[in-house]
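Researcher: I'd like a structural prediction for the single chain below. Treat it as a standalone chain; there are no partners to consider.
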Amino acid sequence: MAFSQTTFLLKQVLLLHLLCSIITTSTSAASDTHFQILNVNESIKGSRTDHAKMSQYNELFERHNNISSSNTSSDEARWKLELVHRDKMSSSSNTTNNMHYHRHQHSFHARMQRDVKRVATLVRRLSGGGADAAKHEVQDFGTDVVSGMDQGSGEYFVRIGVGSPPRSQYMVIDSGSDIVWVQCQPCSQCYKQSDPVFDPADSASFSGVSCSSAVCDRLENAGCHAGRCRYEVSYGDGSYTKGTLALETLTIGRTVVKNVAIGCGHKNQGMFVGAAGLLGLGGGSMSLVGQLGGQTGGAFSYCLVSRGTGSSGSLVFGREALPVGAAWVPLVRNPRAPSFYYVGLSGLGVGGMRIPISEDLFRLTQMGDDGVVMDTGTAVTRLPTPAYEAFRDAFVAQAGNLPRASGVSIFDTCYNLSGFVSVRVPTVSFYFSGGPVLTLPASNFLIPVDDAGTFCFAFAPSPSGLSIIGNIQQEGIQISFDGANGFVGFGPNVC
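Model: Treating it as a single chain, here is the predicted structure.
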């Protein structure tokens, strides 16, 4: 017993030491010049072996109802799901090194292409052009009902049970979307998914929604066909789903939730890489978070697992999921875009020194323009061009010892780290309104873009005044949303 307690205390001390290096106060961050060690070999190895772990993740997902953690409360475990990046979904465990190289190259460029399309759509929607742009896209594929939720497709997946008895399905999570949907039989047009397409006829709990239902009224631009409520969502990458709205039972971790409004998609097209549909986690009433309401208090927490690790991330709903010891930052409400989670960002830092840029570059205007959105579906953080250039130049100046490489895809600041085992790099920090400073792990801002040792500074200029904190920068850090009280928390756990 004594040995067990000593081991536990030692782990707690080590965890506290690690967290102190990630989340600091503004005074300590500003007073010291910080550097980190980036393990080059491990980063490249991680990107190379990501594709060899699909079978392991499938096993983890098959056990998604058997949560086993001695440090997790029974209430929290009831609402807990495992979380994995989409690149695992399209990988194979039996490939040669050469095939890994080309697959990684293809995966990276495909991810950047998706990212550019998503950002363009978010900017269009959040900068005043959303409605007209959405109508134009829907006309392009010949549809007649538009939901208006036209942000790009997501990057991370969970596995939930749909129907009674529950049918396990991979679902994309999207913090910028306000609807839950799955592909449904009869399927007049479906993309390929990993699991059998959900058949409502096999579910005892499936119930269609009438056009006169109050639930149907909550959809943006709902349609009606043969007395049934119709929905449609178009996404920035050209993906879409079209079908009828229904009430259905979802099994989330160990919890069975009845009468969740979901879209039953009979006509779908997408780049969802095997997923059956999408789990909207936005701030609107039709998202899963909104529908759970009082059951979870508008609270959820997620950990996007770092690339190249053998573990899975997590998504947990409920106030029990909100950690003690997090660094809490107020959410900023944008009445024009209530689905999105805005935060107050006041500045950026490199090497522990705050960059002299105006806080106005990150401010949400009274008209609902610009501001800073946290988004699980965008990979690379976007910053207004003046902020990005000052940020990049400060990093380049402090990383002058690293050999430069040509730009790759959307990245203009890259380094040739082939032959290095590890390198010393300046820290990168986000300064939030109210004081907290989030200092990122090195692997969250200098990422491998090929297997040859090319690493790039993982930020990009925004095509507008909108800033987006993407999932690469969120990886490995516990992020919690307290919707009822209007806060987002960083840490204290790592993943």
